[in-house]
Amino acid sequence: MEEKKVIRKQVFAARKAHTDQQIDDWSRKIAETVTALPEYSNSRRILAYADYNHEVMTKYIIEAAWNDGKEVAVPKVVGQDMVFYKLTDFAQLEKGYFGIPEPARGEIVQWEEALMIMPGVAFDRQNHRVGYGGGFYDRFLEKHPYITRVAVAFEFQMMSEVPVEPTDISPEIIVTEKEIYK
After folding, report:
1. Is 130 known as a binding-site position?
2. Annotated binding residue 121
3. Is 120 annotated as belonging to a binding site?
4. Is 1 exposed, middle or buried (CB count within 10 Å of its CB: 0-12, 13-18, 19+)?
5. Taking residues 9-30, what's their average pLDDT?
6. pLDDT > 80? residue 153
7. What is the pLDDT at residue 87?
8. Where are the domains of the chain?
9. Is 131 one of the annotated binding-site residues?
């Protein structure tokens, strides 16, 4: 979809335009907000992405989860699917699909109930999401309906409206450095 391409280009440029320090500061703030959510407190298991290229950094959420005695898993792309590996140490991550950090080894998990920390390129206030175009999250979530979906984003990724397709699965909550959108 042409519109999504344009949005991706805009957001990638905006991500590049911010300093590592800004991305780090905002990511810490987002992690504090996420870990204060009841959805986080009520979950024993967290499915988180490994960030890349000025996305919201997930390491602060992952470290908090470990400290809170929760289990964490991160995705690896296998063909058309995402497979989640239990993460016990950041040293398990190596460059994978498109240079994105992925678990090189570990135990594969099949959790039907967990809190998922979703990435995305852009979102709107109706909680619609534009992803990276691979459909990995939509396909995974379609098969795992009991997973709670929390997207993390920077405020500059929030748009007034983003294009929606019938196969899109939206996050239930979006957390930015400034706000919580439910």
Report:
1. yes
2. no
3. no
4. exposed
5. 97
6. yes
7. 98
8. 2-116+132-181
9. yes
Contact assessment for residue 7 and residue 129, using Cβ atoms and an 8 Å cutoff: no
Confidence tier at 90 by pLDDT (50, 70, 90): very high
Give the whole-angstrom CA distance, residue 38 versus residue 167: 28
pLDDT tens-digit map of 104-132: 999 999 999 999 999 999 999 999 999 99
User: Was 62 annotated as part of a binding site?
Assistant: no
Say whether 6 counts as a known binding-site residue. Answer: yes
- Decide if pLDDT at 69 tops 80: yes
User: Binding site annotation covers 4?
Assistant: yes
Strands, sheet with 148-152, edge to edge from the N-terminal-most edge strand = 108-109, 81-86, 71-78, 45-48, 115-118, 148-152, 173-175, 180-181
**What pLDDT score does 74 carry?**
98
Please tell me the predicted confidence (pLDDT) of residue 98: 84
CATH superfamily of the 2-116+132-181 domain: NagB/RpiA/CoA transferase-like (3.40.50.10420)
